[in-house]
């Protein structure tokens, strides 16, 4: 046979199973399908994609990974109340609150207030000076000089009054110079405010009496005398312990705090959860907690005990009740059974008696 010419004899020497060729065979042997065409037999039907150089490598199935559920042990963030902040583990409360979520207000507010301002209006007369019209003008040099000198000497006059803070000139008028002025005192706190104010007035008057006895010895200074009743207005104050507590209390809780002066003379603001108040809320087997709705008792071990009252004053063991109920049922059942047996036996005895 000539080169390049293919005969039937040539094809016979190369066994080809016609009709049994698979798509895989055609995909892996392109040369065989092109060099031995048989016009008498149509090519086998195949749904495979046309062969190409890229189809000689079997496709590989990619590995698929199923994501595992997260096993993170991070705690859910807490919602802190009343200005508390979450640090990743717990709520950090402000100084006025406590509790796991900062939901409870503190029982006690320490104000550190130990004194209060009080004022006494009194009158003295400067005997060695003459009143002039310039003293009506508080901006004049004459008035400023007199005021400075008066304050300096009053500091000496009132130095024995505990808590003396200074004086304020109210009015100057003729006669030599009559000076109406306010004496400012920082008085110590006490549970009896009225008694403290009376004591302040008394101390001021006492010092003015001393002025009357030493008024003649005032060379180079202002000479003072005081009238027999120098007080224009007794000691007064704008201080209110109750108002101070309301201002110190956190918003929404002011009505639950009342003032209390400690033994050291310091103002504290207490709630009914404090044992130092007359109407102390005794929670017995629980703890008093101040919520926005007011003081309430939180009973202890609620999973173990029942508390019939609202102050945790009586508790009943759940275990005891659980054991007692079956025993009571058995006891009642025993009574019923015994009653039934007694009646049955009684009826039997009556029947035998009648039969005789």
UniProtKB/TrEMBL annotation:
Domain SEA residue range list: 114-221
Listed SMART domains: SEA
Alphabetized UniProt keyword annotations: Membrane, Transmembrane, Transmembrane helix
Keyword tRNA processing: no
Domain of life from the UniProt record: Eukaryota
Family annotation (InterPro entries): Mucosal_Integrity_Assoc (IPR053311), SEA_dom (IPR000082), SEA_dom_sf (IPR036364)
Biased composition (Low complexity): 1-39, 46-76
Keyword Membrane recorded: yes
Membrane-crossing segments per the record: 321-342
One Pfam family recorded for the sequence: SEA
Region (Disordered): 1-76
Protein name: Mucin 3A, cell surface associated
Source organism phylogeny: Eukaryota, Metazoa, Chordata, Craniata, Vertebrata
Gene designation: MUC3A
């Amino acid at each position: 046979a000539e080169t390049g010419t293919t005969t039937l004899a040539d094809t016979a020497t190369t066994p080809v199973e016609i009709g049994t060729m698979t798509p895989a065979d055609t995909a892996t042997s392109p040369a065989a399908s092109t060099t031995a065409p048989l016009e008498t037999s149509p090519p086998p039907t195949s749904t495979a994609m046309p062969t190409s150089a890229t189809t000689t490598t079997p496709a590989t199935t990619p590995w698929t990974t199923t994501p595992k559920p997260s096993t993170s042990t991070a705690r859910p963030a807490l919602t802190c109340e009343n200005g508390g902040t979450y640090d990743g583990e717990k709520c950090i409360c402000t100084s006025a609150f406590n509790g796991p979520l900062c939901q409870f207000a503190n029982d006690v507010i320490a104000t550190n207030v130990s004194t209060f301002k009080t004022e006494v209006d009194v009158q003295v007369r400067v005997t060695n000076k003459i009143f002039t019209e310039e003293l009506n003008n508080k901006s004049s040099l004459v008035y400023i000089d007199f005021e400075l000198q008066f304050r300096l000497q009053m500091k000496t006059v009132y130095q024995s009054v505990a808590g003396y803070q200074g004086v304020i000139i109210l009015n100057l008028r003729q006669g030599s110079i009559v000076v109406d002025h306010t004496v400012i005192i920082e008085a110590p706190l006490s549970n009896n405010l009225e008694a403290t104010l009376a004591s302040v007035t008394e101390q001021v008057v006492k010092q003015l009496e001393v002025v009357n006895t030493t008024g003649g010895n005032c060379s180079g200074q202002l000479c003072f005398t005081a009238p027999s009743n120098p007080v224009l207005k007794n000691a007064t104050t704008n201080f209110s312990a109750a108002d101070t507590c309301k201002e110190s209390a956190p918003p929404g809780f002011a009505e639950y705090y009342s003032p209390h002066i400690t033994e050291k003379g310091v103002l504290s603001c207490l709630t009914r959860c404090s044992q130092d108040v007359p109407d102390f809320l005794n929670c017995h087997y629980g703890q008093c907690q101040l919520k926005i709705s007011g003081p309430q008792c939180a009973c202890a071990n609620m999973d173990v005990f029942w508390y019939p009252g609202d102050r945790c004053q009586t508790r009943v063991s759940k275990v005891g009740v659980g054991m007692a109920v079956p025993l009571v049922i058995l006891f009642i059942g025993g009574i019923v059974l015994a009653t039934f047996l007694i009646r049955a036996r009684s009826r039997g005895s009556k029947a035998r008696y009648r039969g005789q």
